[in-house]
Write a structure and sequence with these properties.
By secondary structure, the chain is of the alpha+beta class. The protein has a domain of 186 residues. Helix content is 43%, strand content 11%. The protein has a 6-stranded antiparallel β-sheet. Helix 1 packs across helix 11, helix 1 runs antiparallel to helix 13 and helix 8 crosses helix 11. The N and C termini lie far apart (62 Å).
Length: 268
């Protein structure tokens, strides 16, 4: 499997409205400069760069491009100020009941440990080298299927963490980067404003080293989990891309015969 083939597969097995996004960190200015994608010529919030990439845009960013202080902090392109680290900043805005709770949020968020020279954010299919993180923002059903694909190889998902803040920069990017594990987010008010995500969208961040197995896991769990109507769409999308659809099995699911109905006798 390669990157382009993996995107073809996942866009066949899932009915995605947005493109999967790849994010790559460069810790060498020379490597950043040599990466053949134009640097954006204006500021942008990191989360909006991901949103733009999900619609087909490709860009490189440095700290000069960062339009959101919290995103810049997560990406180690801005120092965390004392009021944020101590919990005073969020407590002062009545986000948490006390400073201790607010500080615990700052303490548990995992940011980049080293400042990058820059980052590339673009559709995953555009990458010819491996990115660090894959981000998919979609309806909850598709995120469920990606988690099921992860579970096919890895079992129960034990380390999901989110709090409704720094959703794209921390939940979907720096947390998976640091832990080498997947994470989900319900997004947050800030990114929903500046990146204009849809109300029914949530996201998943995937370390690239897990990406291929998750794609394969989604493929392997299609027959037990997908119903006939979805399988028809999957079969059609596979065939349109010239991919093999012979493994799609209709009229069979993991829960066949599991459910019962009918009137019961109530003892009085």
């Amino acid at each position: 499997m390669n990157i382009k083939h993996s995107v073809n597969l996942i866009e066949s097995y899932l009915d995605l409205d947005r493109k999967p996004v790849g994010v790559k960190f460069f810790f060498s200015k020379e490597e950043f400069d040599n990466f053949d994608v134009p640097q954006r010529d204006r500021k942008v919030t990191y989360c909006n760069s991901v949103q733009l990439a999900s619609r087909g845009k490709a860009m490189k960013l440095t700290k000069e491009n960062q339009a959101c202080p919290n995103g810049a902090m997560a990406l180690k392109m801005r120092q965390v100020p004392e009021p944020m680290a101590s919990g005073k900043a969020r407590f002062s805005k009545n986000i948490y009941k006390d400073i201790e709770t607010s500080k615990s949020i700052s303490d548990q968020m995992l940011f980049l440990k080293e400042e990058p020279a820059g980052i590339a954010v673009m559709p995953l299919e555009n990458f010819e080298v491996e990115p660090d993180i894959v981000i998919v923002v979609s309806k909850p059903y598709n995120i469920m299927r990606l988690i099921q694909g992860h579970g096919y190889f890895n079992g129960y998902t034990n380390n999901l963490r989110t709090v409704g803040l720094q959703a794209v920069c921390q939940d979907l990017t720096t947390y998976p980067y640091n832990t080498k594990d997947i994470n989900i987010t319900l997004l947050c008010p800030g990114t929903r404003l500046v990146a204009n995500w849809q109300e029914n969208e949530i996201g998943i961040g995937i370390p690239f080293e897990k990406w291929y197995e998750i794609v394969e896991g989604v493929k392997q769990t299609t027959n037990p989990f997908e119903r006939n109507k979805n399988k028809e769409g999957i079969k059609k999308r596979l065939e349109e891309r010239g991919l093999d659809a012979s493994d799609i099995k209709f009229n069979w699911n993991y829960d066949d015969g599991s459910y019962s109905g009918g009137k019961i006798e109530i003892n009085k």
